[in-house]
Amino acid sequence: MRRTNVLGIAIVGLSCGALMLVGCGGAEGSEMKPAIAPAPAEPPAPIVQAPVDAAPAPAAPTKSAAELQIATMNTAYEGWNGGDAKKVASTFTENATFIVEGGPEVKGREAIAAAVQQTMTAFPKGKVAVARTFQKGDVVIVEWVFNGTHAGDFMGLKPTQKPVGFHGATVAMINADGSIREQHDYLDAGTIMAQVGASKQKARPIPPLPTSVESHVAKGSPDEEKNADAAKAFYAAMEKKSEAQFTGAMTDAVEYEDFTQPQMSKGKAEAKKFYGVWTKAFPDAKQTPTTLLGIEDFVVSESLMSGTHKGALGPIAPTKKSVSLHSLDIFQLKDGKISKGWTYSNGGELMMQLGLIKPPPPPAKPAPGQAHADESKGADAKSQQGRAVPPPTPNADIKATNTADPSAKGASGGTKGVPGN
């Protein structure tokens, strides 16, 4: 589930035809004189043109699927920028599913509005700007940046008034009418905890808000499918524990940005280092593909990694605990090899499963119809157990320039294993 404001909406113009006016001629009179002189003839009545009905208003242009998707996301962004949780929730279907990966799902429009309101309360006047968008079929992927101030309760933390800023991503499945039926958000709770001083982890610098949007729309080309196959091979190398195949899938100058880490990984040497640490920490790791989409020279993948923590993971000693980790990976390929990569995941998901941090307290259950009235009320307590407060989705105006419907064809694949994780 996309900056030079590359996305713009095409408008179809309709024209009206012109009307023709028809003139009439008169007949000559008789030469015979009447017996009684006729009364003087009245001047002929002027020809009155029949009123012409106003031309019908042109029909509203029909938006393509790609345009509807962008319009929906923009409505949500307007809601976030305006602090309007109800407007954000209005972009979802009544029974939509909203997941911040690393926690249980939020189900239903009312619960979504309550969860969004909690985040708005924790970070009032927070701003999000879109960096990049991808579209294929009914899926929209948006990468975004958030900047705000920790001015309200967040995950059990009292306000610190400290600035926070992080990278995140959204994958949205959108119906033909433009409504979101399911949305997955990815961000690193560990980054926020470090920035507010709640953990000893080295905090990533607060990123600036993007000022332009880069967009990518699938063309359905054979090259896109080849790129998807290359990503599958990369994932297979992780599961088979083949270092040669793993590094062989990348260019020598590969750059990889894992947003749970303090800095970017560069080059194959650093990729090999990551590979050794990760495969020793989780020697039985299995990759479960959920989404794998070739879009231009990119591949976007959602995945689930499952395994057992049997080896040291940095300073973390083996716990023998089983874990399941969600991630969103974005690869850019050059000549069939990965030249750049970005991974979005929630470090808190791993830490909770290893027993290193406690899950946040569940929010209160909202009273019927009161989800938007009381900022202290949260989403359904059962669905929110152990869940980080849902983060904002992107808040930036984006427009669709490609009016052709994106290709609906996709493949499946994915993994957690990428350089820098």
Structure description:
The chain has 421 residues and is of the alpha+beta class. The protein has a single domain, classed as Nuclear Transport Factor 2, Chain: A (Roll). Helix content is 22%, strand content 26%. The chain is built from 9 helices and 13 strands. It has helices at 65-81, 85-89, 109-122, 189-195, 222-240, 243-248, 267-281, 347-353, 381-384; strands spanning 92-100, 105-107, 127-136, 139-149, 163-174, 180-186, 214-217, 250-258, 265-266, 286-295, 298-308, 322-334, 337-345. The strands form 2 sheets. It has a 7-stranded mixed beta sheet with strand order 2-1-6-5-4-3-7, sandwiched between helices. Strand 8 (250-258) and strand 9 form a beta hairpin. It starts with 64 loop residues before the first helix and ends in a 37-residue tail after the last helix.
Concise overview:
With 421 residues, the chain is an alpha+beta fold.
List keywords for this structure.
Nuclear Transport Factor 2, Chain: A, disordered C terminus, six-stranded mixed β-sheet, seven-stranded mixed β-sheet, alpha+beta, 421 residues
Shape: globular
Continuous helix count = 9
CATH T-level topology = Nuclear Transport Factor 2, Chain: A
- Output the helix-strand order: HHEEHEEEEHEHHEEHEEEEHH
**Structure classification:** alpha+beta
Which spans of ≥5 residues are poorly predicted at pLDDT below 50?
1-39, 45-50, 370-397, 399-421
Number of distinct beta strands = 13
Please give the order of strands in the largest beta sheet. 2-1-6-5-4-3-7
